[in-house]
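To assess whether the prediction recovers the assembly geometry, we first specified each molecular entity separately, as shown.
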Amino acid sequence: MITDLFLSGIVVWLAGAVASLALWRQPAVARRVGCSAALAGSLLDLAASAAVLFSGSTTVIGLPFGNPAFTWAIRLDPLSAYFNVTLAVLAAAVSLYSFGYLREMEGRRNLGAFGFFLNLLLPSLALVFTASNAFFFLVAWEVMALASFFLIIFEHEKEKTRKAGMLFLIMSHAGTGLLLIAFLVLASASGSLDFSSFHLLASRITPLQQGTVFLLFLFGFGVKAGLVPVHIWLPEAHPVAPSNVSALMSGIVIKTGIYGMARVFFDFYGPPPLWMGTVVLGLGVASALLGVLYALMEHDLKRLLAWHSIENIGIILMGFGAALMFRSLGQSNLAALALIAALYHTFNHAIFKGLLFLGAGSVVQATHTRNMEKMGGLIRLMPVTALCFLLGAVAISGLPPLNGFVSEWLTYQALLAGFGTTQSLTRLMFPIAGSLLALTAALAAACFVKAFAIPFLALPRSEEAAEARECSLPMRAGMAVLAVGCIALGLGATWFVPVFDSITQQTLGVRASAALVTAHGLALTAGTGHGTVQGGTISTAGMALFFLLAGAAFALPLALRWRRRSVIGPVWDCGLPGLTADNEYTATAFSKPLRMIFSALYRPRREIQAEYEVSPHYPSAIRFESEIERTFEKRLYGPLRERIMAAANRMKGIQAGSINLYLAYIFITLILLLLFGVRG
Amino acid sequence: MRPFLDMQFGERIVTLMAALVLVLQIAMVAQRWIVVHIRIFAAQSFFLAMIAATIAWYNHAPHLYIAAALTLVVKVTLVPLLFERLVKRMEIHEEIEPIVNVPLSVVIAGGLTLVGYVVAESFYRPEEPGLGHNALAVAISLFLIGFFTMINRRKALTQVLALLSLENGLFLAAISLTYGMPLIVELGIFFDVLVAAMVLGILVYRIRESFASMDVSRLRRLRG
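The predicted structure of the complete assembly is given in tokenized form:
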């Protein structure tokens, strides 16, 4: 049953891919076929993986081809199923949205190709999450990377797009290279490429190999996830892709890195050495903080969201890191709490970041710009989009009672509880990470005040923004699905947490939800203290109720007295004749205080040119330019690229361009190898 | 004594023909005329087909007959015909100008034969009866000499011929070691050879069209 559902989902996707490519000459048909197949496949996948997740069982599917070394084995265990549910929910919403989003492109772009790569990306993602053979996994992984690449460069006539796509491809392949080495090390230890033979294997190899494999996996998967310092492709590639692709990229494609880490850290490894968790936690903190700090300086709406993906990956990794540390310290229950926090946040991020990118897509399509400084006043022109974007913004800022709050709160609780688990100095890591998480969340909230207020409030800052229209019905429907998801995952947290039982059972051997859910299923609690720290308790449903009541208590008297007391007058304009959009607070100005505080990181450069005719007190035009330093590109990747180019130039000598010479190289190598083989 | 059932006799036949194949390979290294080169290749392929048929007979491996027949059709007939027509149609200068001169080339070919025997020695298992010992050494030598010939030629057409004789070496290795791979693999290889010959034939023609020469060193211009 589950097997049939899952496989038919894959088949529907692949059939949709072929069909929409075949129909590329009829854009309207290709669009409908491509999006319908994506939607149908997602729903089938959702049904299959939800069944696995709720039953807690494991389904193994063997495909009837392949050979003993490279089996095409599919294994739907709770962890795989969880990521598949994430994929399916997001993909269903995005497919719905794409019905409307792609209509604008009809006749201008090859929608058949789009449908093909979209319907190739989705099954490859499903297979990445379920493949249980290293070879099969890498095949699915590469198909996913290539499909993503072609979707990113869909608007390939712009040079910037092609460059971003190439950067993605290079980084992605470098990451795959690391993964390949890591898998081969494991395979040589186990004598098989099957994941089942890797179970707890990584803890049986020598400590040096253990550490090496760990770092290879961390950075190999980290490239895809957007881990600092291998994150640089993300803020380039996400903005240039079509917005529905950005939503998928940010929502689920980067999560394949998270899935890979979960699989490796909690399936291949037994309780790891403490330093591994410390490294993951540290990199998570760095990613979260740097992600949000760079997001604050960004005025390109989609780039801003891309930086926030890095931030959220950081938060997820903080949960992972804490879980690994607790596992080393023998605290299974706390490890389960931290793992739940990380996985919960993974799902939440897929939902709200998908929602935000879809909202940004509607805005960009309506205003034809990604620059926030040219938007404004959209809440009146695009009310539904504005409401959805606002819900997404509240969720990502970690404000109660939406879903982002729940998972970030769980992460805090895990981190704070960690202080009491050990007497060594390492325990200081936990409160430090916790306070930096708090800083991150506060900065994210500040950032989304900007990201919502500048585009949606006040007056339009450009003609395009003034002429914006609300997006089409399918697009609104796609966003609404995710917005409802944000609310449901927030208010229904206590009903959602038991889902993780089968995952924690599988990975850590404990079922944590009974201890987490309290007050007859109405509140979450982080337990009654571990060592010196008392766990907290929250109830999102209760908070929602409180907000409703408080809002009603505030609004009711106002509504009753509205007609009698209030007078609507003009905004005070300092005596100037009429306020225009030029008087508005800009995004640059909004973020200025933070630019000053963190100037050591940003190293801002600004330039002001004023033109005046009569007196310097009355300038006729002012040009202001501000820029921050791209630290990683300049200090890490710049020198690296120069080294590689220098090495390549040195290698150029042997590339004489003569076929005979090339043949001679091969020949000499061959003879040496033969003789070597004979001797050995 | 019934020679047609005696394994020993069969091994002698195979060894004899393998020696002939090797001699023809060295003759190819020394050959200066393209048309003769093509015909030597055809003759070599013919003996190879005979070896396959002999092994098929003595080892009761009927599918090797098919391989032998295919060799006759493809390598003895089709490919040489194709190439001779190509040579005539392009009216090329029919003399081969090797990079290393002929006497030295032959000495190198001799040295490579030695390497072939040294390498094959390590595969030799005296306790296992079989036809293959000498044939494997010859096969490796064919492969190495074919490779060397490829390096030693300037024109694309002659390089293709060398590649095909290299492939003959692989074929000989396959039949002498395993008495034939599964038939499907062999069919695939023959299809490969045919396609390769055609593609390379077309490519050779194109190189000539674009560079007014078949000299592959002109391709150097493509370098970035």
